Amino acid sequence: MSGIAETELDIIDFEFKLQKIRTQITSKLDNQKHLALILSAVEENISDQSNGSSISPIAYLVSFLSLLDQSIDTKTDDILDQSLATSSSYFLDLTLPFVPKTLLKSKFPEILSKLASIITNSNAEAPLIKSAIGSLETLLIAQDINSWNNTSLNINPRRGFGGLLEFSLDPRPKVRKRAQEAIHKILANPPPGPAIEHVASGSGAEFAIKTIVQLLNTKTNQKNNKEISAQLIHSLQLVSSITSANTWPTSKIEHLCDLLLEISKTNDQYLVSAAFNGFEGLFNSMTDEIDNDKFVKVLNIIFDLKPSINDSHLAAAWIAVVAKGVTSYSKVEPLECIKKIPEIFKILTPFFASEISDIYVSVSQCFISILMEGIPDDYLLLPNGADITGEIYEEVDEIITTTSEILTELLNVKFGSAAKEILEVFTVAFTKLRSRANPDFLKPLEIIGEWRTNEDFEFKLEAEAVIASAITELGPETVLSVLPLNLLDPKKTGRAWLLPLLRDNVRFARLGFFTEQFIPLIDSFNSKLQSLDKNSVHYKIFETIVDQIWSLLPHFSDLPSDLQKSFTDKFAQDLSSLLYSNVELRVNICHALRLLVESNVTYASGALNDDKLLTQTFPISESQSNIEYLSSKSSNILAVLFNVFSQTVPESRNFVLETIDAYLSITKPEDLQNTFNKVSVLLKNAFDEEDKQTKPLAKGTSKLSVTMMDLVVAMAKYVPESSYIALFTIFNQTVKSSDPLLQKRSYRIISKLIESESGKLALVKFVNDIEKVIIESSESTHSTAKTSRLQAINTILEILPSDHLHFIPSILSEIILATKDVNEKTRELSYSTLISMGKLMHNGGVIHNSQIPGFDSETPDSQASLTEYFTMISAGLAGGAQHMVSATITAISCLVFEFKDIVETDLLVEISSTVELFLTSNSREIVRSTIGFVKIAAISLPEDIVRPTLRTLLENLLRWSHEHTGHFKSKVKHIIERLIRRFGFETIEENFPEEDKKLLTNIRKSKARAKRKAAEEGEEDEDSKTQSRSKSSNAYEEVLYDSEDEDSNDEDESQQNNSKSNKKSNQFIVESKDSPLDLLDRQAMSHISSSRPTNKKGRKLNVSEFEKDGKLHFAEGNNKDDEDPLKSITSGINAYVDAVRSGPVKGQKNKFKFKRGAKANNDDGFDEDNDEPVKQRERTKFVPRGNKIGKPKPKARKKF
């Protein structure tokens, strides 16, 4: 049955291809028309002979072969009719795949002889040969193993395949490419038989190797011969065609590798690229386990061809081939590949000592590629009794140990020139091996940490990247055991620079480590602060360090591994106390509390299921248990957060609200109901108290009722169904409040409810009452609450039943007027609301006009449609107020742009002609909106609507071409330019008023100048430039407010870097007279720099060191270190101070800028007259990042 179905599908496919040609009978292209005519004639002839029965592919084959015979002289094999031969060959190529293979086998000699007369003809053109190659491909694929092995016949498949090999090197690109594709397809589809490889693969490989050898010999004698290089590239493309079919003979692999590497020595980048493609094809083809021996042989051959470490031509190319080979081998035998990694790294290690930068950069990238792609993540898992046994785990562990020893050797002074690249390798090693890097990689981590401690070390950023990856993968506890902070111990090296690294990279750590190590550290610094002057520099330094330590708390709260053990009631109480007492810590503590919930919720939802190592060490069930644990404490935490929220100024409490939202999401329904009831009581009491209160509130404070409403809005989408009646009661009472802040929050209740399924059901249930409230409250809406009101209306429209469409005309005039609002967000919402209404009207339904306010109760119903919707809106054009007319035109413009493709043409014509009449109005406000509509019409409406009205449109439009007010002149000019682009200059000129032709001439000249200028500067014509768009995401506003002035984007000229990449690296030793460099010391690498060291300049004398009489004063006997209570703080703190002083400061509009010049070295940031710099609050939106859970970079955030 499947065979019959497959045959039927083939016939359908064949008929589809023929039908496509039949439709080209009227084509303007001669070749397409010619094919259609021939097909028509053939089908007519076949139909006459078959008496109307269906035509089979075999009948077509016979007809096309007959046509081919007619086009060729059977005696001389000359082509009599090139066009007929090409068409016949084309149809043969199309038909043969649908002919039964048995027929192709039996008629092979006859068909091949006819094709051979074409292929061997020197006068045959490329299209004819391409089709003949396609036919030959199908013919050869159909042959069985006996046909291929039968060489006694004069005409056999091997001869046909030999012809394809010759054409694979043809100088004509399309012929050559088609032949190579045919060879690949033939070899990729071997005939059934005992051999895996195709029987013709050997002859193909021999032909390719023979050709390459001959060309290389010729190239040696004729250097810089481009023709020979081109032929070599063609031969390598043939190699890629064979290898990518996985048919290159094993016996010829070594010879091929020799040739490919020989070609890689050349300076011709195209040849080298082609050689690499040959290697890649060879590696990619060996993806089956049966090719393991072949793969090992190839790798061994490549390793035997190892070049010199300073071979500028071959080394980098050889390294790239090694990287590709090893990563490909890992897909065949991953465990065997892992076992070979130490051996491979030993072979590659000497290349890090090369004097040529390209070579040690290449070998570093090779190390990185092998680490990332050569070690599958599955083999880094703990023993699981299935795929990873205890034996495999131990094997991999030994390999990691050996690898760490090899990589540690790279931290030697003899590899100093490649220090930057070596550090990058270690960064990748920690990222890949993760927890399996512990403890083997702790020794190199310690060395790199000591390098970073040296302030003169050149590659601090790269060293920090290594330490950062170690913090992320091994955890802060492990890293700090090797590189302790030492902030309190005067005898040890301080590492305050680790604090920012910890802040940015701690993930999935133990929360208990923070409470055990950092809380005591904070207490110690706080005790020091009590003994210092608050205005002193050192006080500010210590205070900053304390803030930095507290900034670690949120990251220790990012999916902690010991949440239930460490987040105890006592710890929660301590945090609560700090929330009340220390305002500066509220951001960090709230962020930490929120991340405790969100990281576990995100993880429990399966966001990191792809991370097998993480899910093995931290099961999803653990995060679910953590959520239940936090849920049991959420009521108490929410009580604290509610109090903190009410005590925080409105402008700076959104982060508290976000934390509240996180805990509301996991609170049990019964606890939520109790909490909501308490908030509702507090809201009612606040209303009662405020009614009695007569004194105005102090500046910067907020009404308690507004604060409680914020909490009600936050709880709206979480409260259980039993609380909905109370919630809607609050909405009903506050929506008409005289306080705009309460009004805004009242409408937000509706917007919040739509975010949950239960809330959406509640809205549907109470939609009738909500509609009435919204309609009745339209007159009492404050201007500042319009945005929230429109959001609520949009929410209602999302769930509006089809029998409630009377709600649309009831509020339509309000939405139309909102399109002219000064607030951009209100305008955007009005556009989206109009479009939502239009979609509802387009979906159809009944409008109960009797329920519209102001309509008679006996008004008949009407059917909803877009035509009816435009009729409703057009009523605003008859309004007496200019503002209403202008808003209506703006609304129509938006809707025409949105629905132009589905509105009837007659309606579009009527709307367009009606609106354009307002160009004759004397009201600039109305005309401004009308010009906007004209622009929309000129750009988006069909040409057959705009073209007939061009003359009238231009006459009315040009009335305002001399009006500068409101940029009317530039707007009109821009519309005319767009019309010229669309209809052509001649059409516009014909319809242009005679008295305004001067403007048209001006536009034409300016366009010509712009084109000339663009041509001179080598830029694109301005018509083809993509102009920058409005910030608005609304497509309508993007078109309406599209740039009307020609932008001139001056691009800075990029400076050319002429330095050669192969230049030998310059290395300098940084040392002092007191401590000469010890090359045997493992710290020697940190004293090697790629830039020439300079002597430190003498200290400039301060003005204060001169006496009043101008004499120089030398201070004697004053040892400030003896008096300095902070002398125990080592260079780590000093470096930290420098970093703080030279860090960014806030300028205008809260933008960060860096100190320049003399300002960079002063202490203004810690001056006694200045307060502590305001710390930027971190953005607290939670997202997963990388293979751990984290938060995004801070951004400015609008207040709630």
Automatic annotation (TrEMBL):
GO CC terms: nucleus
Chain intervals with Acidic residues compositional bias: 1039-1054
Region (Disordered): 1011-1070, 1145-1200
Intracellular or extracellular location(s): Nucleus
Basic and acidic residues bias spans: 1172-1181
Biased composition (Low complexity): 1055-1067
Signal peptide stretch: none
Residue ranges, compositional bias (Basic residues): 1148-1158, 1188-1200
Domain RRP12 HEAT: 354-648
Domain RRP12 N-terminal HEAT: 27-243
One family name in Pfam for this protein: HEAT_RRP12_N
Keywords carried by this UniProt record: Nucleus
Family stated for the protein in its record: Belongs to the RRP12 family.
Protein name stated in the entry: Ribosomal RNA-processing protein 12-like conserved domain-containing protein
Source organism of the structure: Wickerhamomyces mucosus
Lineage: Eukaryota, Fungi, Dikarya, Ascomycota, Saccharomycotina
